[in-house]
Design goal:
single chain, mainly alpha, 88% helix, rod-shaped
Length: 124
């Protein structure tokens, strides 16, 4: 009786974890794609250009030599593009699809449940 309750609880917990991971495996890539879209939109490009121009102008007005101001502005813009590259790599080079992840999670949960059941019943 007690063994059945704990086994049922373990199965319910496993199903809950499976559901959570299923949602996460679908939602995270969509979130990253949305961020990439906002970073690389036409409006974001215009804003980045304005920001770079303002950055460069401030450096020049502050007395920075031309070559240093240009290099610093290039580095400033490089920060944005590096961030974009990192975000792209997170979605563009996934080794598993969400279906693959769900299958792997299900298999691992079933293995763990089988292990717990074997330990409780003493069978191998």
């Amino acid at each position: 009786m007690i063994g059945e309750k704990s086994e049922r609880k373990a199965r319910e917990d496993a199903e809950e974890v499976k559901e959570i991971l299923s949602v996460v495996s679908k939602e995270i890539p969509a979130l990253i794609r949305g961020i990439i879209g906002s970073v690389f939109s036409e409006e974001a490009g215009r804003d980045m250009g304005r920001a770079a121009a303002a950055f460069y102008s401030e450096l020049k007005e502050g007395g920075m030599p031309e070559d240093v101001a240009v290099k610093m502005t290039e580095n400033y813009i490089g920060t944005f593009t590096s961030l974009g590259d990192v975000l792209k790599s997170m979605t563009g080079k996934r080794s598993h699809t969400s279906g693959d992840i769900q299958k792997i999670v299900k298999e691992r949960l079933e293995e763990k449940l089988a292990e717990k059941t074997e330990k409780k019943t003493g069978t191998s």
